[in-house]
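Name: SIS domain-containing protein
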Amino acid sequence: MTRERDDQQVETLFARRHGPVDDLAADAETITRACAAMADRFRGGGTLFVFGNGTAATDAQHVAVEFVHPVIVGKPALPAISLTADIATLTEVANRDGFAEIFTHQLRRLAGPADIALGISVDGECENVRRGLNAARRLGLVTVALVGGTGGPIALDPAIDHVLLARSTDPRVVKEVQVTTYHLVWELVQLFLARTVATSEVVDERAA
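Structure predicted for SIS domain-containing protein:
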């Protein structure tokens, strides 16, 4: 009986992940549009600003490293900054202006209209992430939200250009899908940039 119960639990653990992963594949067009927009900003000299709370703060740093120092040799490094990495700035802004402003304040001072803002939230409920994306949109940045569950207030905010949703109520599964999503984002951005370079080389050869 114990072995049978264990087998059922194992099946449940895997089954819990099937739907969200299938949904991720079904969202290929949405993800592709976001990556095309990001590649366009990078092409114009833009920088990616990434932010989130808790484990999403760690994800923000992970994303920044992926772009700044690609693990695949030969892929171009791209400018990216995690707004969660500077603890002195975070705590000073939180102390004086409130925790809800920790990303907004930084974006207003560091970002410009050529850039990209990527906010990460497990449940879409993080007010400081939502405010940061709002501030970014007002500055002219392309805004991308990587959220889970139903997407919460962040997914419903009209200031968000692209919503990438990990459809699960289990925060562990959300995190797993989000990691896969931002790895896909990196790969697709690199793909679009490589296509642009190849096209430019063909045009240059014809002109010569």
